[in-house]
Amino acid sequence: MLELMLCSLLTILPDYLYRRYVQGKRIGKEITLFSVWYELRWGITACLMLTVALITVIFYFHPSTTNVTLFYRTIPLVPETIGRVAEVNADFSGPVKKGDVIFRLDSSKQDAAVKTAQRKIAEVDAAMIAAQSEVVKADAQIQEAKSSLQQASDELDVKRELQRRNPGIVPQRDIEKLEVVVTGRQGTLDAVSAAKQSAVIRTTTLLPAERDSAEATLAQAQVDLDKTFIRAGVDGRVEQFSLRPGDLVNPMIRSAGILIPEGAGQHTLSAGFGQIEAQVMKVGMVAEVTCVSKPWVIIPMVVTGVQNYIAAGQFRGGEQLLEAQQVQQPGTILVFMQPIFKGGLDGVTPGSSCIANAYTSNHELLDAKGTSTGKRIWLHAVDTVGLVHAMLLRIQALVLPVKTLVLSGH
Question: Over 70: is that where the pLDDT of 121 sits?
Fold first, then answer.
């Protein structure tokens, strides 16, 4: 309607004023409904064509959309294991800090595993003390065996020396008995030496390895126990957290709730513009939005990103061929916008729906020396008609509460 009124100022209104005040024709006499159409048919036709052209230029170079949402990210509260809830520390709705325990699963099995691992470590420590005692005992046995061997060897040497000096003075049978005794005591010495070596190896290698294994088992048990404590990974707040003790939580089927990170939905607006504006939408474009949750306010924005893919055209490879008719909607160009001024989105509820206008600016082309006069006029006209769209946005912001509260039928 605004475009039609603007175009009529250039076509129908001058024609009417000429016929009314120059030619002296009167309304209801010479100027009737038929005569208006017949005499102003060229002006009316030109007005309609100019209106269509103006609307096309405005909506193409200064695109608008109502598919604007202040999206925010949520984090599902999902434990790593299946378990029954034993304790809940969060309210139905409330803030949480990073590291706070939100709820705890039943940990009787994990507690038993931790205690078992701790007792295994204590058992290995006790075995280490016993092994060290065995090393000391083996040292004493080695000393005793060496003494006995030395005594038997000395006695054998004396018997042999006497036999060499005076053959027959010492019975051969006694010398053979002493040789057997020496051999036996040498074997005893070797046995206690081997026992000591075994005790040393057990003390220095086997038992430390068993203790390391027990400590690893304890660490694993502690990790499993820690998994029963579900903590907040970031600062934020839980909403609609209805989990209660006794509920069964399954990470594959049912999450416990959601955590909304602090500051979520306060930085970037996501807007879906028509595909026809794909060549117009550029990073750095100035935009304006008005949101339902913050009526009568126009928020200056800037385009910070344009997604190069249209979500409606995506597919996942499988056992069936792609059918193009399955894409029922053409999809939109996803554009990301952020407020120009700090705190521009303050007061806008995350998840709120908005209306957005983006404005094409040809300032650089107008300042370029190689731009022709005709092109300059065209670019000036394109930038100027953006004012019409800005007026439309402000009218929409003005009537939005009335449309929502009165005309929606709720």
Answer: yes
Percent residues over pLDDT 90 in the chain: 13
Cα-Cα-Cα-Cα dihedral of 135, 137, 138, 142, to 10°?
140
Q: Based on C-alpha coordinates, what's the Rg of the chain? A: 47
200: its two tokens: 């040393």
**Angstrom distance (rounded) from CA 112 to CA 118:** 10
Q: How far apart are CA 229 and CA 223, in angstroms?
A: 10
Nearest to 178, CA basis, from 143, 144, 150: 150
Condensed to tens digits (0 to 9), the pLDDT of residues 216-236 reads 999 999 988 888 898 888 898
SS in 3 state form for the chain? CHHHHHHHHHCHHHHHHHHHHHCCCCECCCECHHHHHHHCHHHHHHHHHHHHHHHHHHHHHCCEEEEEECCCCCEECCCCCCEEEEEECCCCCEEECCCCEEEEECCHHHHHHHHHHHHHHHHHHHHHHHHHHHHHHHHHHHHHHHHHHHHHHHHHHHHHHHHHHCCCCCCHHHHHHHHHHHHHHHHHHHHHHHHHHHHHHHHHHHHHHHHHHHHHHHHHHHHHHHCCEEECCCCEEEECCCCCCCCEEECCCECCCEEEECCCCCCCEEEEEEHHHCCCCCCCCEEEEEECCEEEEEEEEEEEEECCCCHHHCCCCCCCCCCHHHCCCCCEEEEEEEECCCCCCCCCCCCCEEEEEEECCCHHHHHCCCCCHHHHHHHHHHHHHHHHHHHHHHHHHHHHHHHHHCCCCC
